[in-house]
Design a protein that fits this description.
Layout lengths: L17 H4 L4 H24 L3 H8 L3 H9 L7 H10 L24 H13 L1
Length: 127
């Protein structure tokens, strides 16, 4: 039986990128992020236009299960290529932009000599 206190504790605290924590390679992570970005843009357009599944089956030249997977966000079953094709069939422009990685922020280290630390403590105590 769970105690009332356990409901407030996080189950997992991530140390950065969730995909890294789950053990995905950088290539897999990049693919999932790209798929998610394309999917979000497609879904937003579909919702704004009020397209129904039957219309999408015809327009996207896709089978109904593929359209269902698209609408439900089951991206593991849809390739990036297919998502880009869907975008084109919905008259959306797709662009790919490659950028250099951002340089990692240097980890700053604080070094305090024992003489300075002792002086700082004396100043705090005398204040």
């Amino acid at each position: 039986m769970k105690s009332a206190n356990q409901g407030n504790k996080p189950g997992h605290v991530t140390k950065g990128d969730l995909f890294d924590d789950l053990g995905f390679s950088p290539a897999e992570t990049l693919e999932m992020k790209i798929k998610a970005e394309i999917w979000q843009a497609l879904l937003q357009h579909i919702e704004e236009q009020g397209f129904k599944q039957a219309y999408l089956v015809t327009t996207l030249k896709a089978h109904q299960p593929d359209v269902s997977n698209l609408l439900r966000g089951k991206l593991a079953r849809i390739s990036i290529t297919k998502l880009i094709q869907f975008a084109g069939r919905l008259n959306l422009e797709a662009r790919v932009k490659l950028t250099s990685p951002k340089p990692a922020k240097p980890v700053s280290s604080v070094k305090v000599s024992t003489a300075k630390a002792a002086k700082s403590r004396r100043e705090l105590v005398s204040a």
